[in-house]
Design a protein that fits this description.
With 225 residues, this protein is mainly alpha-helical. It has 8 helices and no strands.
Amino acid sequence: MANAAILAESSRTAATSRVTWIGLCVSLFSLIAVSRFFHALAPHPGVALSLAREAAMFACAGLVLWIVRRRERLPLASIGIGTSPLWKSLAWGVVMAATCVIPAALIAKYAGYGHSAASHNFNNLPVWLIFLVVVRAGVVEEFFYRAYSIDRLQRLGLGRIASSLIPLAIFVAAHASGGLVNVLMAFVLGAIFTAFYLWRRDLVSNVVGHFLIDFVANVIPAMLG
């Protein structure tokens, strides 16, 4: 009986590990795959295709959330939700955004951020759609590249440094279509987001900080024309 129980537990652990690997593949690579797919359909997508692309990315996040709750059967705290009071998460999100302002402004000023063809196409979208993209980036990218991937890589046996650097590298690669300046911006800000998450394990504050910095950089200029 004892051996049967051990085998059953080992089987459940192996099954959970397989599901976690699936979740990691989705979290680390689905945004790149979706982006490349829609770029292949239309290098300069209009409103309809851009909206479909964002919906597909949100659907990928829904899939990973389903994996967390239904397949891994882990609490939301394992992805940094509910680990801090809401007011504190909001406050630290503002702190995170403020921390990003100076390096982001320096890169924008001296490296010419925002002058690529991809940036011009993005800026030509309606303000409401730009806002939706900013919300999706804040929510899904922090969920995928920080909360889920860092925790699950550590659960699978990787060290703290590797579990942080692998998602960061893929996060940077996901922004390569915007050129080297976009890669630099993603690396610097992504490193800040990663450091904050390692420190606080609070997905909500990361989402707020990511959203605020993108809102200031993209939505406000679009609103001002």
